[in-house]
Design a protein that fits this description.
Strand order of the largest sheet: 1-2-3-4
Structural class: alpha+beta
CATH superfamily: GAF domain
Number of strands: 4
Largest sheet: 4 strands, antiparallel
Number of helices: 2
Shape: elongated
Radius of gyration: 19 Å
CATH class: Alpha Beta
CATH topology: Beta-Lactamase
Strand content: 15-25%
Number of domains: 1
Amino acid sequence: MLIKFSVTYSSTFFFFIFFPYQDARFNQAMDKKTGFRTRSILCMAIRNHKGEVVGVVQALNKEPSGTFTEEDEKLCSAFTAQAAVAISNSNLFQSTERALNQVGELTAI
């Protein structure tokens, strides 16, 4: 269900802001600095397989309607799931690379 101001859901952490300039959570500094006008926001956490937040996705100013929908939420959710896998794979690769470098340093002694 979409509500005309903003909604937060603790189970998945996402929210819609339909009128950012009327929402206390919205920081107008970047809009003022760049001249950009934020009209709507869809924000969703990227969670890894342990449920930990490893990033955040934010979409601004839905075109042409200006209003994000439940379908947009579903698409964003699918995207964040794929992003979480990519981030986890990258972290795993970096950990493996560090471990191999340490082994290489030990065998060089």
